């Protein structure tokens, strides 16, 4: 079953990095191998990158609601490593679906689903990540990463046009609430150590990807708090497993 999924580029797609690739790390920030994260997309407006998103299906991308994606105007660039080059595919956003808001600030449901106007073509540079079930919660045995453009903005030794990633360790709710204040962190958030630069990736909508036994899951999406570059404060992600039924509902009904 796994093998047939691999051939059809399901989310069980195996990642590999060519041995000849030069890997550049600055602190904990590593320049990713081109297309190592084939679900990572760039949301663009008039040719400019403004947020990241994550491909979960050939018609659907997940991002942060606060990216304010404009349907029929903004595009999704797929199969992209260096923002100075052309992406493998560029697809207009057809429609944006937002989680119902409860009016709280900071928003507790900072998630949008973007429907693509034409299906993405899967291949070695473009393929989806798995969406976790409710019981697939990352713990210390998982390996988690965030990836994005604009890494460690302002550091001369990091090229912000190229996709970078950072390995992250997760912080439990108790510690996270202690750092941020209880009212701000809900059970629908996942926190990670700031790991110096992770909170300075400067890229809203970027994914928290967690891997177990070779399968990569979209565990979270960067939300508020992540752009302050405060090394003492955990980075905060919207917990995707909490919204699994909403994602299934929207993607099946539309
Ligand atoms: C890298 O991350 C670890 C924790 O994940 C942290 O202790 C260390 O200070 C970081 N290194 C740099 C250079 O920021
Ligand atoms: C949360 O993490 C802190 C710091 O690592 C630890 O001391 C504490 O026991 C953890 N709490 C729970 C409930 O796991």
Give the total of beta strands.
15
Shape, principal axes of CA atoms? globular
What is the percent of helical residues? under 10%
The unique ligands bound to this protein are: 2-acetamido-2-deoxy-beta-D-glucopyranose
Number of domains: 2
**What would you call the structural class?**
mainly beta
- For the record, give the distance between the C-alpha atoms at the N and C termini, rounded to a whole number: 28 Å
Largest sheet descriptor: 9 strands, antiparallel
| Rounded radius of gyration (Å) | 17 Å
What's the name of the CATH homologous superfamily of the largest domain?
Answer: Trypsin-like serine proteases
Description of the molecule:
The protein is mainly beta and 254 residues long. The protein has two domains: 102 residues, Thrombin, subunit H, CATH 2.40.10.10; 97 residues, Trypsin-like serine proteases (Thrombin, subunit H), CATH 2.40.10.10. Helices cover 9% and strands 31% of the residues. The chain is built from three helices and 15 strands. A nine-stranded antiparallel β-sheet has the order 1-2-10-9-13-14-15-12-11. A hairpin with a 2-residue loop joins β1 and β2. The longest helix has 10 residues. The radius of gyration is 17 Å and the shape is globular. The two termini are 28 Å apart. The N terminus is likely disordered. The structure holds 2-acetamido-2-deoxy-beta-D-glucopyranose (2 copies). One 2-acetamido-2-deoxy-beta-D-glucopyranose binds next to loops.
């Amino acid at each position: 079953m796994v093998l047939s999924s691999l051939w059809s580029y399901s989310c069980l797609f195996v990642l590999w990095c060519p041995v000849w690739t030069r890997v550049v790390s600055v602190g904990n920030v590593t320049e990713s191998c081109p297309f190592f994260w084939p679900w990572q997309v760039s949301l663009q407006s008039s040719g400019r990158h403004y947020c990241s998103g994550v491909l979960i299906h050939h018609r659907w991308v997940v991002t942060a609601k606060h990216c304010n994606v404009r349907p029929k105007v903004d595009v999704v660039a797929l199969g992209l490593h260096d923002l100075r080059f052309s992406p493998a595919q560029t697809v207009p956003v057809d429609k944006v679906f937002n989680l119902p808001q409860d009016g709280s600030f900071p928003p507790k449901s900072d998630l949008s689903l973007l429907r693509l106007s034409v299906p993405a073509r899967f291949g070695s540079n473009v393929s989806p990540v798995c969406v976790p079930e409710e019981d697939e919660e990352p713990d210390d045995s998982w390996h988690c990463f965030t990836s994005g453009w604009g890494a460690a903005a302002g550091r001369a030794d990091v090229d912000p046009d190229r996709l970078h990633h950072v390995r992250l360790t997760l912080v439990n709710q108790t510690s996270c609430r202690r750092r941020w204040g209880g009212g701000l962190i809900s059970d629908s958030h996942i926190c990670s150590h700031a790991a110096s630069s992770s909170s300075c990736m400067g890229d809203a909508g970027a994914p928290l990807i967690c891997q177990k036994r070779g399968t990569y899951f979209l565990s979270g999406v960067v939300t508020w708090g992540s752009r302050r570059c405060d090394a003492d404060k955990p980075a905060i992600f919207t917990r995707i497993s909490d919204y699994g039924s909403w994602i299934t509902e929207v993607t099946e009904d539309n």
